[in-house]
């Protein structure tokens, strides 16, 4: 694709003996929003840090506008950071407590546009504050004087001030109140549309991802298990983990009473509405996913097989590759071709 | 930084012991520097008529005189001036060197940090007094040597403290955010690390001053520091020690000044730590 | 029938050098035996503080007034030994982060057995075997092995199961679960909600489920209380609340929950402004600044909780179905 912005190939990240990211490949195009979902241990936040080279991957390449960020010299990397920005999860922790809000937002300008005089800088900072819904008279205040939502806006202002081509959002609404989440998401949507920016939106909140993304990547224990256009993923998920994830999201059924189950009974939910994973299976599943033991992961076979209700003997021995099952829809499952006929999965 | 300074100042003001200590310190410093105008005597003039005279309000020698007839009041004030000046100057130097060294070691980490810390450990292991004596033998006595020796005392521990603080700051998200914004190591250390570790550093620096003054006094007491006819509290105490039985005031006057000075500095340092501690982190 | 828990006009203030901050501003509620009550609210709502007051776990600078009665006995301003007879045995609590609420240097078995030894004067060996059986009942795989493990060796979901087990050991009448699933992955969250449902039907105790997530509460609660800025603004049967919310805040909050099933939206529904921080409430009705229905009366006159036994609301202009 000629407008590929980011190209990640064969990325591996190890924390000591523990493989956190085990071979990730994907592309991201200019202007598109890609949602990255996964739970703890999936490696999604580590992926963000690897792309930003905040840690050094063991293997692989991250090409941003053609330049491999992992191999280029530090000075070149710093120059590229202008186009590749990030907003972190904890709004207050990502702001320097000893710097005023104005100084924090101005810092990227000081780094990349040293020629600007103080007045011009201040004007840009004020303009940015207004664009994120804050007022310019807040420049002299300190982060601890603001709420979580406001701090997140400041973080977004800092990330956007140089109009990056790609913005990585690492769980940016997870620590915010529900009535505020929408504000931040809408702000992001507005800024993105105005700037034509690409966004990598990392979240465990599937509902939010659904409304934001063009495409969705699903990660499990360091690997991508499914990639699909957003509508396709939510309407007809292929990988059993994706289906389990969607089934587990608690919903408010229209006639909810004390007996309401986490899955909405039938209406508009994914075709596989009844619980995919029985509690007993889920319980034992935790043993596998939680105590992530390296020898286990290094073993051949699909990482999800211990929790998967549809596992076959082949899943023990052979690691399924990420294959294009339908146009634009990729899944790493030996049984992905069977989803066309849902009944065959019910054993 | 403004809001934090205000808050810390307010907390300090409410600590009565610290306030008294500060007032006493200011009084001593004022006295030391304005002394020459108050006292009719010079710290160097020998008054043959009043050798080892007792302190008294009637005579012009309020604190008495020493063995050579020099006015003790003037000499003590001169000594106080010297001790405070050396203490402050050496503290500032050790602060600058220690903070830079520690911040760089802590931030860069890895092998660089390893090497830098090994160097500190080696230097800490050197018996300082012997080192100073050794240097005195080679280079002769000089005030510059004194400065050097004293500077060598303070910065080692300061560097360790700053490195420790830097290590704990290093992993915090706002540092990652600064790196992701494209800031280089120099900028991050100067603008993000140092301002955030400054709390414990200031406290330690304040508590270093009395240490340094004491060390200088010790060196001078041993004859390695300030030379005649200059005076520091250490040299005065050394002289006074020799006259303890016959003319105790020669020891007591500079001794009390030193004791009060150190006490006030320590109380102030403690108060500062309490004032800065609460909001940190 | 005495309610299991009865809170009346509870006020909690935290004193600071600049003054005192109101965290709970006159809350009254009741929990009937075997009832599951969901408490929903955002930051600053005071939902946790109400139950910290009941458990006697408030910070040192807290001033409490009002009454909290558990099975008829007053809990506030009662001395520690009296409170300790009740807490941990008949009135138990499950916290949000099991890692910090379990003692890191004691094994799971010790911590579980300790509860029974302390409250039921049981010998250690019996207590340990009962602990093992309770771990089975909460579906912890390989319970014998777990007894000898330390908290850090268990996953988040597993630790939460241990906490649930711990809360059930002395057959409590009321279990308070404070955001029990917030720190967990969504698949594990689903399991814990299932577990809580199973446990409720098996043990029959009352359950208070505190959460900021209405969907989590929807799966379990018979009745739901919505709190805002230290007050209860709506108290209704679950079906009523979701189907016909009467307080504007409840209605807006329901709209804010992004729907994973419905049509994709160009913009997410949201509520302007933010919940007030404790001590920041200026108007008589704390929701007035953000309320689409606010009128002058709302700024001057404080709305009190009124209504029937099935549905109460604190609003001058409640929504009608």
Plain-language structure description:
Chain A is α/β, with parallel strands linked by helices and 347 residues long. Chain A has helices spanning 44-51, 74-80, 101-112, 118-131, 148-160, 178-195, 206-212, 230-235, 240-248, 279-290, 294-298, 313-317; strands at 4-15, 18-29, 33-37, 59-64, 67-68, 84-87, 166-170, 198-203, 215-220, 223-229, 323-326, 329-331. Chain A contains twelve helices and twelve strands. In chain A, strands 6-7-8-3-9-10-12-11 form an eight-stranded mixed sheet, with helices on both faces. Chain A has a four-stranded antiparallel sheet with strand order 2-1-4-5. In chain A, a hairpin with a 2-residue loop joins strand 11 and strand 12 (329-331). In chain A, helix 3 (101-112) crosses helix 4 (118-131), helix 4 (118-131) packs across helix 5 (148-160) and helix 5 runs parallel beside helix 6 (178-195). Chain B has helices spanning 2-13, 16-38, 72-108, 110-125, 128-139, 143-170, 173-180, 185-221, 233-242, 249-277. In chain B, helix 3 packs antiparallel against helix 4. The longest helix of chain B is centred in the N-terminal third of the chain and has 37 residues, at 72-108. Chain B is elongated, with a radius of gyration of 22 Å. With 321 residues, chain C is α/β, with parallel strands linked by helices. Chain C has twelve helices and twelve strands. Chain C has an eight-stranded mixed sheet, sandwiched between helices. The longest helix of chain C has 18 residues, at 186-203. The two termini of chain C are 32 Å apart. The mean pLDDT of chain C is 89. Classes of the chains: A alpha/beta (347), B mainly alpha (281), C alpha/beta (321).
Topology:
The complex is a heterotrimer of chains A (347), B (281) and C (321).
Chain A: E1 4-15, E2 18-29, E3 33-37, H1 44-51, E4 59-64, E5 67-68, H2 74-80, E6 84-87, H3 101-112, H4 118-131, H5 148-160, E7 166-170, H6 178-195, E8 198-203, H7 206-212, E9 215-220, E10 223-229, H8 230-235, H9 240-248, H10 279-290, H11 294-298, H12 313-317, E11 323-326, E12 329-331
Parallel strand pairs in A: 3-8, 3-9, 6-7, 7-8
Antiparallel strand pairs in A: 1-2, 1-4, 4-5, 9-10, 10-12, 11-12
Helix pairs in contact in A: 3-4, 3-5, 4-5, 5-6
Chain B: H1 2-13, H2 16-38, H3 72-108, H4 110-125, H5 128-139, H6 143-170, H7 173-180, H8 185-221, H9 233-242, H10 249-277
Helix pairs in contact in B: 1-10, 2-3, 2-10, 3-4, 3-6, 3-8, 3-9, 3-10, 5-6, 6-8, 7-8, 8-9, 8-10, 9-10
Chain C: E1 5-16, E2 19-31, E3 36-41, H1 47-55, E4 62-70, E5 73-74, H2 80-86, E6 91-94, H3 98-101, H4 108-120, H5 124-137, H6 143-147, H7 156-168, E7 174-178, H8 186-203, E8 206-211, H9 214-218, E9 223-228, E10 231-237, H10 238-243, H11 248-256, H12 296-300, E11 306-307, E12 311-313
Parallel strand pairs in C: 3-8, 3-9, 6-7, 7-8
Antiparallel strand pairs in C: 1-2, 1-4, 4-5, 9-10, 10-12, 11-12
Helix pairs in contact in C: 4-5, 5-7, 7-8
